[in-house]
Every structure is written in C-alpha cells, then in structure tokens.
Design a protein that fits this description.
- This protein is α+β, with helices and mostly antiparallel strands.
- It folds into 2 domains: about 10-205, no CATH class; about 215-365, no CATH class.
- Helix content is about 40%, strand content about 10%.
- Strands 7-8-9-10-11 form a 5-stranded antiparallel beta sheet. It has a 4-stranded antiparallel beta sheet with strand order 3-4-6-5, with helices on one face.
- Strand 7 and strand 8 (about 255-260) form a beta hairpin.
- Helix 3 (about 85-100) crosses helix 5 and helix 7 runs antiparallel to helix 8.
- The two termini are about 40 Å apart.
Length: about 375
C-alpha cells in the first residue's frame, strides 16, 4: 500500500529491490515448530519444515538471478508505490497457483497442474505476453516444466494438457511451496491490503500454531546489518520491553517492528491498535532502507535535554514530522510516519542520545 498520496516517483532498479527482498528472508529458521492441522494432509510436519527451508533456499537463488538478469524483464517506472514491480508480482501469483492448485505426485517430487488461474482469470491475471517469460524465468532458477511448450505464443494448461513442475536440485521444496501457497490463499487475513509478497519473503508464520516470537522477527530483520549495529538494536529492544513496552509487527511495505507504551490503557488492544499507538519502531523499506523511526510528542517538555544532543539529532527533532507537503512543501516521502534515523554506522555516535530521547517521551521511565 503506497503512502505517497497519489504522487509518483521513479523506482529503483529491480536488482536493488531484489537485494532488499533477499535481506528480508528468514536467516534463521527453527528446527522444530508445530504446524496447524490444516496442513496435515500435505505431508508430515518434518517434511513440511524441510520443504519450507528448501523454498527459502530457492528464493536466495531466485533473487540472485533477479539481481543479475532482472533488468531484462523489468525497467524502472514512474509509480505511486516504489515496491510495485509487476514482474515479481506475476512470479508470485504463478508460484502460488503452482503450489495451491498443483497435486503432489510421484513421491512428492512433481506438482501436477491442471489449472493456472492467473493465466485465465481477470483477477490478478498475468498478461498473455508475460506468461511464458515467467515460466522461463522459473526454469532459469531451477524449475523444470514438462507438458508445455514454453516457446508457444499461447500457453494452455488443462486436465487434458496438464503441466508437470519439478525442482530436481531439492524436490522437497515443492512440498514447502504447496504449504506456503495454502497458507497464503486460505489463512492470510490481510490479502486486500498487502503488497502480495508474503510468498516471496518465505513468510511461514501462518503455518505455525504459535505467534511468531518478536525476538526472532527482530533478529531476522537485523541480520543484513553489521554486528555492532545488530547488538545495539537488540539492546534497545531489551531495554524498552523490560520497561513494559509492547511490540507489534507490520509487514506491509517492508517490515516494521513497533514499540508502544500501553501502561495507561484500560482495555485489551489488538495488534493494529498497538501499532497505531507506537512511540518508535525499527523499519525497513526499499525507499528508506533500515531505520529507527520515532514519533515524538512531548519535546516541549524536555527542550533543555534536546539542547545537549548532537546538532544532527537536534535538527531532526526540531524539524518534527508530518505531511512533507504541508511542512516543507516537498513531495510525500512518508514524513508522517515519524522522525527517521538511519540504522547504519552513524547511529553508533548518537546511540545514548537516542535512549535519552526515547526515555524522555516516557515520563514514568525518564532517566535524564
């Protein structure tokens, strides 16, 4: 979902977006997690977990291929949403169709497909001119397709002319693809508002009977960053959760791990409510990269404290946050989300100041 209120901007090359998406893949997956009963008929829990891990490994190869060859399939365009890459959306829809509608046969080493709705239905339909490109690209990434002529102008898949998909390098990947596709089609409640990239992130949380552990989500968020920055971010998480702040995860337009102070709340809040009441968050997006975003509300009450911050941080705080067009007569850059501080080496010079800033927004815990 775009946040630029109808304004367009030039996308980054698809290779850069692929690098970003590759960084969102789960780096560390648990050896054991309990699966929902919905997946009992697919395979054993152990086989599904191995399949999901194999699909994650396939995505590493997939993104490497997009990084090297994606420019042949997708050129940067003026768009309202910098994460809108039709080629990747088409691949995502095709993979879901293969996994969801395909039947595992021959010891689960082949997915037999008799329908590809994205090829034939108006909703999420892949243009005829792009269908063969998508299949050929998956073939470059290790898939093998039989029963179809990838050079034909019109591709036909039916009960009379089924398509067989295999992945010889690691056949159990097909089981993982099937389970993830079922989760995406049947269990994802926010389909209407998503960027349709859960499958291309290998988001296996919907398979799990338990809620995702926030610390695991944070570690996966941090894994592309240098060790010292990861350590600092984990320390921030511990500091503020120990203080009683509550976390919520939002995976639209990248990923956001938000922290809210709910001590005065008189009712049980949903995750959406928690996110809407956030004071600060870790965020990652193709537009802004990795950041800490702070929604200051009480700076007038600790102006003397701000005067002791480095000039760089003082200026960011004084600029405030809000609609970019109204505040600075600039195009929308998501300024309404908060004060954005890059999560790179520069943050290490102001790490204690950031803690003081956050503490000052929480009078009950103010440490300055």
């Amino acid at each position: 979902m775009s946040i630029n209120h109808g304004e367009t901007e030039m996308q980054k090359p698809i290779s850069e977006y692929a690098k970003f998406m590759k960084g969102l893949l789960p780096a560390d997956m648990p050896d054991a997690y309990s699966l929902k009963p919905r997946f009992e008929y697919v395979a054993s829990e152990e086989t599904i977990r191995k399949g999901v891990a194999a699909f994650r490994d396939f995505l590493y190869l997939f993104y490497d291929r997009v990084i090297s060859d994606g420019h042949l399939y997708s050129k940067p365009q003026q768009t309202k949403n910098p994460a809108d890459y039709p080629f990747l959306h088409n691949i995502n829809h095709l993979l879901i169709d293969i996994g969801y509608h395909g039947k595992l046969v021959e010891n689960s080493e082949i997915l037999m497909i008799t329908e590809i709705p994205s090829f034939t239905k108006s909703k999420n339909r892949i243009p005829v001119s792009k269908q063969a490109d998508c299949l050929r690209f998956l073939a470059l990434c290790g898939f093998r397709f039989t029963g179809i002529d990838l050079e034909a102008k019109t591709l036909v898949v039916s009960e009379k002319r089924p398509l067989a998909a295999s992945y010889p390098d690691d056949p159990v990947m097909l089981t993982g693809l099937k389970a993830l596709s079922i989760a995406d089609m049947e269990l994802r409640a926010d389909r209407r508002y998503s960027n349709d990239d859960n499958l291309l992130r290998c988001d296996y949380s919907l398979l799990n009977t338990e809620e995702a552990d926030i610390l695991d989500v944070l570690r996966n968020y941090l894994h592309p960053l240098p060790e010292e920055i990861r350590s600092y971010a984990l320390g921030l998480h511990k500091r503020y959760t120990d203080m009683g702040m509550v976390c919520a995860v939002n995976k639209r337009d990248g990923i956001r791990i938000a922290y809210s102070n709910l001590k005065k709340s008189q009712r049980v809040l949903s995750l959406r409510d928690v996110y809407d009441r956030r004071l600060w968050e870790f965020a990652a997006s193709i537009r802004h990269g990795y950041c800490i975003v702070v929604r200051t509300k009480k700076t007038d009450k600790y102006a003397d404290v701000i005067e002791n911050f480095p000039l760089y941080l003082q200026e960011k705080i004084r600029q405030g946050y809000g609609c970019d067009r109204k505040l600075r007569n600039e195009r929308c850059q998501g300024g309404c989300q908060g004060i954005r501080i890059p999560l790179d080496d520069s943050i290490l010079d102001i790490k204690h100041d950031i803690e003081i800033l956050l503490d000052s927004e929480m009078p009950d815990f103010r440490s300055v």
